[in-house]
Design brief:
Pfam families: Glyoxalase. This is VOC domain-containing protein. By secondary structure, this protein is an alpha+beta fold. The chain has one domain: 2,3-Dihydroxybiphenyl 1,2-Dioxygenase, domain 1 (Roll). It has two helices and nine strands. Strands 1-6-9-8-7 form a five-stranded mixed beta sheet, with helices on one face. Strands 2-5-4-3 form a four-stranded mixed beta sheet, with helices on one face. The longest helix is centred in the first third of the chain and has 11 residues. The radius of gyration is 14 Å and the shape is globular.
Length: 132
């Protein structure tokens, strides 16, 4: 573990499947996940459509050219330190990141949240549990 890196602890898809997130072009999408979000590709496939499985901190997501609408999908990631993740993303030069460190409540859990919209238009939320 790198001390300057946040640790992803869990992931929940906005739609049904975090291993089948829609992208228009896998080749165009992958550099963002590797360079900006720190994922690495663990497998790729061309059938039934171009797709890849990526991992970071043992958490896996998948991207696929499946014809889905990326604006309607993405994931919520639980992270150990959302401010560390924000600094990590900003350090790459990526500007389309929006911190909202105000407390937000989902169910009975309070979160400090960071929003990232990928160039492929998938939206990601990174949340750190807030102890109240």
């Amino acid at each position: 573990m790198h001390p300057d890196k946040a640790i992803l602890k869990n992931a929940w898809p906005y739609q049904q499947d975090k291993l089948n997130l829609p992208v228009a072009s896998l080749e165009m999408a992958l550099p963002f996940y590797e360079t900006i979000l720190g994922f690495r590709v663990v497998s790729r496939s061309e059938a039934p459509q171009p797709s890849a499985v990526l991992t970071r901190d043992g958490i896996q997501i998948g991207l696929a050219e499946n014809g889905g609408d990326p604006q309607q999908d993405g994931c919520f990631f639980e992270v150990d330190d959302v401010e560390k993740l924000f600094a990590e993303v900003k350090a790459t030069g990526f500007e389309k990141v929006r911190p909202d460190f105000k407390q937000q409540t989902y169910g009975n859990v309070a979160w400090k949240v960071l929003f990232v919209v990928a160039p492929d238009e998938l939206c990601y939320s990174f949340g750190e549990r807030v102890i109240v």
